[in-house]
Amino acid sequence: DIQMTQFPSSLAASVGDRVTITCRSSQAISSYLNWYQQKPGEAPKLLITAASSLQSGVPSRFSGSGSGTEFTLTINNLQPEDIATYYCQQSYSTRAAFGPGTKVEVK
Amino acid sequence: QVQLEQSGPEVKKPGSSVRVSCTTSGGTFNNYGMSWVRQAPGQGLEWVGGTIPKFGSANYAQKFQGRVIITSDKLSSTAYLEISSLTFDDTAVYYCATPRNERRHVFDFWGQGTLITVSS
Fold it and tell me: Cβ(B42)–Cβ(B35) under 8 Å?
């Protein structure tokens, strides 16, 4: 199975900051990389597909980039409602896999 | 808009089995496949297994092979996840999730989650 890693595992930032989360896959997955946001007690929410395609309704301060084995989720101008855990997920293989998550907190 | 409604929480003993259901409404059942994702208390998301229509049968994450079965009933628009030989480590919230189109394993829609507690 393809393994996904993310770093940092957690971070604290101030409102208005730019936040960057990195995701790596154990083998090349082209652009078959998705990002999810999960708030406590809720199901995950799909933010970005195909590495950089923002889903309808997701604020434009979220963006994604990368291909192959390294990917990035960026949140510009962090807002209080962005406090959550973010997961990357590969959809390249018939066996999907999630990264371990990055918890974003307010400093 | 597709909605996924899951069965209620369950408490099971170690060594027993459990079956969780997920009923689709507002869209064509299993048109684009269905996956199951679990989340142990305080932990991250873990893909358990899922179906991709063009491939027919379900695929499972390696650690669940032989212990998990994913099935479906078209007539009732319901997908099922059955886990056997339960251990304490299987205590988790189990989600069903499905894509909105042919993008396999891109999970646009999620169920509300079902808490399975394994306790002696």
Answer: no
For chain B, report the end-to-end CA distance as a whole number of angstroms: 40
Chain B positions in Cβ-Cβ contact with residue A1 (cut-off 8 Å): 61-62
Residues of chain A contacting B62 with CB distance shorter than 8 Å: 1, 95
What spatial distance separates the first Cα and last Cα of chain A, rounded to whole Å? Answer: 36
Q: Quick one: B28 exposed, middle or buried, by C-beta within 10 A (0-12, 13-18, 19+)?
A: exposed
C-alpha distance from A101 to closest chain B C-alpha (Å): 6
Chain segment A46-88, per-residue pLDDT in tens: 999 999 999 999 999 999 999 999 999 999 999 999 999 999 9
Using a CB–CB cutoff of 8 Å, tell me whether A100 touches chain B: yes
Residue whose entry in the numeric block shows the structure tokens 């989650």: B113
**Gap between the Cα atoms of A47 and A57, Å rounded:** 9
Which residues, in sequence order, are CB contacts of A81 under 8 Å at separation 6+? none
3-state SS string for B53-106: HHHCCCEECHHHCCCEEEEEEHHHCEEEEEECCCCHHHCEEEEEEECCCCCCCC
Q: Report how far residue B33's alpha carbon sits from residue A15's, in angstroms, rounded to the nearest whole number.
A: 39
Q: Record the tokens describing residue A13, joined without a space.
A: 């930032």
